[in-house]
Write a structure and sequence with these properties.
binds uridine-5'-diphosphate, 14 helices, Rossmann fold, 433 residues, six-stranded parallel β-sheet
Length: 433
């Protein structure tokens, strides 16, 4: 990927002084930057990296983006890690069934079985990290490793500053899995968490707090004409004659799609409206298709619920059009990392109702940029309120757009990364620009 993008393309969107800062900081970064995660598409990390890489290159910084590979067993293990690191949510995370022992011997056997299973799981994880470390060129000045999947690549570190960029909420993790991952993660030069609530007291390395961001110039977020929006909705057989409630998210249990359907059904009894659930299945997520089928079953017989599976993935323009066609945007997650779709919705001037979890409360200031929902009933009440009050919806949407402009755009994110790189290179604390 040799494309680049100039930061000056953002001149009409953010303050000039921020762009000048970026140029100044970039001049002081020397060497190669490498980002590694688990997928080029699907999910927020890939979304951010697609823009971040272009902009780093545009600033003249040599930058590479690589993904790790693994077999089904590896990705199913890393998905389990993802679920249990996020902490348990009633009914949302599958917990391994432990059979009731009938005797002390049975009890012992079952414990040994569990220990063997975990040992195999950790071995498979390390095995694939080892394979990737042999295949990849990790010889870089700054290596950003995103999330747990490639975290153990650090074991072969020879040079450079290594940064573990955590996008998920690890504030209340399963202790066993966290203790396993903590060993490699503690070897990094620094870690980055999205919000103060996610930071860990037990890592013993420097921790930075950097909220994620969206790119206002990506196809996902650029302005669209009404004609372009209509064309996309036509393609999916959706007529704009009724208000649209939309949730764009991967088919993942933690996104609580059944909860969104329940809230919609409550609203639908009183106000005629329609629901779009648009999402895909990330290549590193073996559970996605199962969740999609559960959602289809729950939506069965409801002609105003449009469950859209992006397979092949929806284009960014299509996602953009679904969001821009909406009256209300939902992100009713039970657990969330940051929740980029919330910023995407707010940037489009839409009121967003989100679960009060992860990074969503950073973006949704209750009653100012949207609403936080704590239950299905609460979400339904807020949706109905917004559908009945277009002026309220407009006020929240406008405030939301400004909130995103000042806090959650890629240009701010880029500045944070450049500052972190400089501060790691200058551990004495003095950076002369
Ligand atoms: N997304 C997409 N197509 C889909 C579903 C999601 O492009 O079918 C995008 C969505 O617009 C957002 C990102 O994937 O940019 C999801 O990021 P978020 O932080 O909301 O959730 P994650 O998937 O990382 O848990």
């Amino acid at each position: 990927m040799n494309e680049t993008r100039s930061i000056w393309d953002y001149e009409d969107i953010v303050e000039r002084s921020l762009l000048e800062d970026l140029e100044l900081l970039a001049e002081h970064i020397s060497g190669r930057v490498l980002h590694i995660n688990a997928t080029y598409s699907g999910g927020g990390v890939a979304e951010i990296l697609s823009s971040m890489i272009l902009l780093l290159k545009g600033l003249g910084i040599e930058t590479e983006w690589n993904i790790i590979r693994g077999d089904d067993a590896f990705f199913s293990i890393t998905k389990t890690f993802h679920n249990v690191l996020h902490g348990r949510v009633n009914g949302a995370v599958e917990v391994p069934v432990k059979h009731e022992p009938v005797s002390v011997l049975d009890d012992l056997k079952s414990e040994i079985g569990e220990l063997t299973r975990r040992k195999e799981m950790f071995e498979t994880y390390l095995h694939w990290n080892r394979i990737n470390s042999e295949e990849m060129d990790l010889n870089s000045d700054f290596v950003f490793i995103h999330d747990p999947q490639p975290a153990a690549l650090i074991d072969v570190k020879q040079r450079g500053k290594w940064i573990w960029r955590c996008h998920i909420d690890v504030s209340n993790p399963d202790p066993l899995i966290w203790n396993f991952l903590r060993k490699p993660i503690s070897k990094y030069d620094a870690s980055i968490f999205s919000t103060p609530m996610f930071a860990r007291p037990d890592l013993g390395i420097r921790q930075f707090l950097v909220p994620p961001s969206i790119d206002p110039l990506s196809d996902k977020n650029i302005e669209l004409s009404q004609g372009e929006i209509d064309r996309v909705l036509d393609k999916y057989g959706i007529c704009m004659d009724k208000p649209i409630i939309t949730q764009v998210s991967r088919f993942d249990r933690l996104k609580d799609l059944p909860g969104v359907i329940d809230a919609y059904k409550l609203v639908k009894k009183r106000i005629d409206c329609q629901l779009i659930l648009a999402g895909g299945v990330a290549s590193d997520d073996p559970e996605g298709m199962g969740v999609y089928h559960e959602v289809m079953e729950k939506a069965y017989g409801e002609e105003d619920i449009h469950v859209l599976l992006g397979s092949p993935p929806f284009s960014d323009i299509e996602i953009n059009a679904f969001q821009r066609a909406s009256t209300v945007i939902m992100q009713k997650s039970l657990k969330e990392g940051f929740g980029l779709v919330v910023s995407e919705g707010l940037w489009k001037g839409k009121p967003v109702i989100g679960g009060a979890t992860g990074g969503i409360p950073l973006q949704i200031i209750n009653d100012v940029t949207g609403y936080l929902a704590h239950s299905v009933d609460g979400a339904a009440f807020k949706i109905a309120n917004l559908l009945k009050n277009p002026e309220l919806a407009r006020r929240l949407g406008e405030a939301g757009k400004e909130h995103v402009r000042h806090n959650f755009l890629i240009t701010r994110h880029l500045k944070d990364y450049l500052l972190i790189m400089l501060s790691l290179e200058n551990p004495s604390g003095t950076i002369r620009l």
